[in-house]
Amino acid sequence: MASESLLLIDAGNSRVKWAWWQGKLGSQHTSSWVDVSSDDLYTGDRKADRIVVANVSGQQIRGLIDTEDARVVFVESVREAGGVTNAYRDPTQMGVDRWAAMIGARHHRPGPLVVVDAGTALTVDMLDTDGKHLGGVIAPGYRMMLSSLLGNTSDIAELATAAADRIAGDDEIAARSTSEAIHSGSLIALVSLVRHGQEFLARRTQSPPRILLCGGDADMLLPLLHNAEIVADLVLRGLVVIAGEQS
């Protein structure tokens, strides 16, 4: 694998992320599905020996790559890979982006980890010191919560989104307008789930877990969490590990 050129793709529900690997992982690129084309994936005359994909986008990926290309590898969730043991009764039912993110987290930092993807949905997964997955939770993401409260036609939706820029810490969480209250309620719900996962893992491991965040809303959660950091390319890091095991 050392001499291989890999195109790594994290095909999510609302966004697609990609990076190249050739001896080391390159910078992550991110785009909405509306704005991306296959030409965006390639720079210059680069050619991939393998195209490694974590796909939860359904058929959208077909507009980006030739899924019949022999170089394309669609990663699947399994019982064990990359030093991580999956807790699901049926591992194939776990979203492959969650699975790859946990593997990426395990190889980024040792010790007990809370792996958080704050995107369309919020996922929180707990890994103990040995890489054993202890389970996780899934909840609506920030924008999905707003939509459930406001729908797509309310003017308050724009105000609530703008409120995110004005509320950045515990001291400012008590809202003084409707838009800020909607933002605060949604944000507190998400942060509480992450903190609950951290407390659960601390009890199980008797060690302070580190929170690793990825996803489009990670920067909104980070100021309200302790012992946390953003690792935006966790899924792509996991794909590198998986590709190495499959080479």
- How much of the sequence lies in strands comes to 15-25%
Strand order of the largest sheet: 3-2-1-4-5
Distance between termini? 6 Å
What is the CATH third-level topology name of the largest domain?
A: Nucleotidyltransferase, domain 5
> Uncertain spans, ≥5 residues at pLDDT below 50?
none
> How do the SSEs run, as a string of H and E?
EEEHEEEEHEEEHHHEHEH
CATH level-two architecture of the largest domain:
2-Layer Sandwich
Domain module tally:
2
Tell me the name of the CATH class of the largest domain.
Alpha Beta
Shape: globular
Q: CATH superfamily assignment of the largest domain?
A: ATPase, nucleotide binding domain
What profile does the largest beta sheet have? 5 strands, mixed
Structural class: alpha/beta
Based on DSSP secondary structure assignment, what is the total number of beta strands?
A: 12
Instruction: Please state the CA-atom Rg, rounded to the nearest Å.
Output: 19 Å
Helix % is 25-40%
Mean pLDDT: 88
Count helical runs. Answer: 7
Concise summary:
By secondary structure, the chain is of the alpha/beta class. It contains 7 helices and 12 strands. It folds into 2 domains: 5-74, ATPase, nucleotide binding domain (Nucleotidyltransferase, domain 5, 2-Layer Sandwich), CATH 3.30.420.40; 111-232, ATPase, nucleotide binding domain (Nucleotidyltransferase, domain 5).
